[in-house]
Amino acid sequence: MSNPKGFxxxxxxxxxxxxxxxxxxxxxxxxxSTPAPAGTEKTAPPKPVAKVPAAAADTQEVVIxxxxxxxxxxNSPSPVQVITAEKSSLSGMxxxxxxxxxxxxxxxxxxxxxxxxxxxxxxxxxxxxxxxRGLGSQRxxxxxxxxxxxxxxxxxxxxxxxxxxxxxxxxxxxxxxxxGASSIYGSDxxxxxxxxxxxxxxxxxxxxxxxxxxxxxxxxxxxxDLMWGKTFDKGHIMVSVSHYELKELTQGDRAxxxxxxxxxxxxxxxxxxxxDPNTGTYKCYGGxxxxxxxxYFAKDYWQLLSDYGISNYYGSRAITPNTPCTPNNFDxxxxxxxxxxxxxxxxNDKRLQNSTIISPVQTNTLFSEGSYRPDWAGGTEFYSELLxxxxxxxxxxxxxxxxxxxENSSANPWNQACDRYFCLPLQAEPYLAVPANSSQDVKxxxxxxxxxxxxxxxxxxxxYISTSQNNGTYHDIAIxxxxxxxxxxTSQETYDxxxxxxxxxxxxxxxxxxxxxxxxxxxxxxxxxxxxxYYFVPETGKxxxxxxxxxxxxxxxxxxxxxxxxxxxxxVSLRRDHIKDTPGEFSRNHNVWGFSTAGVTQGTDxxxxxxxxxxxxxxxxxPFIEDMKLDTSVRYSDYDSVGSATTYKVGLxxxxxxxxxxxxTAGTSFRAPGLFELFLADQTxxxxxxxxxxxxxxxxxxxxxxxxxxxxxxxxxxxxxGLPQNFSGGGxxxxxxxxxxxxxxPEDSYAATFGFVLTPPDTxxxxxxxxxxxxxxNQILSTTAVVSACYSSTYFRSRPGFCDLFHRAADNSIQTxxxxxxxxxxxxxxxxxxxxxxxxxxxxxTLSIDSQATYTAYDKSQTFPGDPFEDFxxxxxxxxxxxxxxxxxxxxxxxxxWTVNYVQESDNKGFAGETGSTTDIFGTPVTYRTQVPDFxxxxxxxxxxxxxxxxxxxxxxxxxxxxPYIGTSAVGFGKIGNYPFSSQYYxxxxxxxxFVTISKDx
Length: 1002
Hints:
Layout: H1 11-23, H2 54-59, E1 62-63, E2 70-71, E3 80-84, H3 85-90, H4 96-101, H5 104-107, E4 140-144, E5 147-148, E6 171-177, H6 182-185, E7 192-198, E8 204-212, E9 221-232, E10 235-246, E11 249-250, H7 255-258, E12 264-265, E13 294-296, E14 356-358, E15 361-372, E16 381-395, E17 398-401, E18 417-418, E19 423-424, E20 429-435, E21 438-454, E22 460-478, H8 481-488, H9 519-524, H10 529-535, E23 537-561, E24 564-582, H11 585-588, E25 597-598, E26 601-622, E27 625-639, E28 643-655, E29 660-671, H12 675-679, E30 683-687, H13 689-692, H14 712-720, E31 734-738, E32 747-758, E33 765-777, E34 779-781, H15 786-791, E35 806-808, E36 814-818, E37 822-824, E38 827-842, E39 845-861, E40 870-871, E41 881-891, E42 894-903, E43 906-907, E44 917-919, E45 925-928, E46 931-932, E47 935-945, E48 949-956, E49 975-976, E50 979-980, H16 986-990, E51 993-1001
Parallel strand pairs: 4-7, 31-36
Antiparallel strand pairs: 1-2, 3-6, 4-5, 6-7, 8-9, 8-51, 9-10, 10-15, 11-14, 12-45, 13-20, 15-16, 16-21, 17-20, 18-19, 21-22, 22-23, 23-24, 24-26, 25-30, 26-27, 27-28, 28-29, 29-32, 30-31, 32-33, 33-38, 34-37, 35-36, 38-39, 39-40, 39-41, 41-42, 42-47, 43-46, 44-45, 47-48, 48-51, 49-50
């Protein structure tokens, strides 16, 4: 394994060298402390205990994530990362999203968070999810106290747990299982499992509040919670209520977002962006409308100035002064039609400054849990959990509205555009920035009740039933397509004049001619009420997702081997999921201009399962084998939708002595299709021709004489389809049709880990290193890459396949693409996890250092059979190395904490045809940045803990670190404002933040 540039130079020096100086010993270790006994969180933490023998630590066993048998994280074959509430609070983390998405096992890939305004994501706008190993949130199982949580969100694609629903205020720790576990937990546990463990047996009343404002405005966070608990002889009860708020960050709040630039570099090494004569600075390009606010004519791209005095019209042709205009010489002649030079055009409308960069969110959560052991039950304990959450989120955005006017439409003021020499009717297509605001209100309840106990033979049992419902409403603004066609008298697809003309017979009730050709509308966006009320209609969708689970299990010893008893866990489970998503009226009727639409998504699936786990003690007390155990598990699942599947897992835990432990796992997992993948009603959206068609300009060459389209097979097949070498892609956007797949098969996967743990006695040092690899087959995906797959295939149209999934229009543009969910191959990823813990007592206090790091060696995916594997590992959003080091020093009632967060440099050059060079609009060669250097942030905090209260104060992103500006990519890599777009740089978007947390016990 190579030593990545910058790794040892930065955070490894900050963490491990600091440890070396403190103890004379290198340190990379895992949290060695057994989770605190239930109910101890309220009192002052016990003093650190040094020199704990490994054998003693092994006796403090609990049921940890990844097994139903009692273990701890260092005698489990599976690698488990523990994130305590103390660690996250001392780092200034307020929400579950911050805690989980910043973990090393997740931070190596982009995560869905509140920056995804206007993007189509599973669960809808405002959802936050967790994806381990970059395999997607649908392949990461999220539990609460070891039991499955339900999906939450809005829209027909609800599938993943929304992290906003986790009761963060009562979480004592998160356990992240870092390998597959379908044989233990069932479907979805492909990449791993996240398990939130709540506080138990809490006595008293506790009030906590956190304020986390930003130094630069926007992205502020606030949280307050109240928790009450009572423990009594026969049980306990705990109730918590909390409120969390994330403030909006808008485009105008940061210079990097308010003025998106190309960031091109010329041959002289200087910025080569255009200078805007109106501002004297580099030109800004608004994202919502591609900067085009005004009018152009689809036929000749002329812009009118004199008649309306509008200053931001533009044209695409040069004008030849003093050239007379005649019917045979209309292009470029000197008329009262004039052009605005490109650099003078207003391409960053000021209205866009209020666009959302980080969505504002409010959550209110009630969580309660309790248990009771009545005398009559013979030792049986009854328990329950109640979770009620509400998430309110919203997004302010702008979209491009360009209604089409036929040249003979009476609503087109240029239907007889007369020059001093002749009259020429012109088609018109005004480009307008219009609001596209949206909001969501998601309510989730989950009720769970169960019982557990033991039998006289030493076996224990547990049975529970849970029921939950996600009830989400989502609000958007629809532009009804039939109203636009009536108001323009023009087919919005073909430009044809409608038989009835403007607001003719059969027009929707109350038709108002769509007259947008006024200065007040075009420049200022001020619409008369009659137009605004008719063409911009609020609509509301509703999403219901129900889940019911019944499960029972028993655990005990079945017989003895020479090395000890064989422990077994057996169980059965029944789960039923149901979804019904009802979009708004116009969306259901596919009657929304230029926006995605969908029908009603409704369906049910039920799974019946049996499972078992056994631990075999193989050797104990032998030379070089202090202890060796074999862990096995198997699960049989039977789905109504896709039939049955069997998964297994085998793990070996080998304690060589009290210093070295080896561990390994191998097994299979699977993921049944989600309800939306099975039942999603046809949903339509749009992509530009450049995004979907590989035949555009396939035969042209660049200045070096190389083909623009580098794939020779694609060039051959495009020519075979009769497309010209300089094919420009045609006109309208391609319509993407996405629906459920009735013939889907479950995904299957294989995962393996191998690692070692060092726990030298009397050192306070622990090190865990684990190699992992996962391969997922028969992935269920919706993809628009079917066009590329068609033209890159050596079979091309000689057999049925991808070439049958799209249709070209008369002008050869891609008209429709069938992007329904289907099984396609294969994704595989692998790497190494490093986990560190070191604790050292001094006369004046205690030093502890905790570190997590992940190196991803490869992340390869194959889109279609026969395709080569593409490895995007090392590109922006998929760094090879990520990690954090938290150094903590405790002196009496004071705790001082320094946390270093590391994301390795990454570069898009060389991937997907990215060269870092292009030409500007004038054809001048330019280059641009494709690389992000190491991104390192520091968090500092100090805590004072008194008998009944504590205060934590600190600062996150201490040095106010921001990502570098990157260039506008020629092949479309993600960019937000001037920054790279990925969740690893979230703290850089906000900048330095201060925080204070106050806790009081009563």
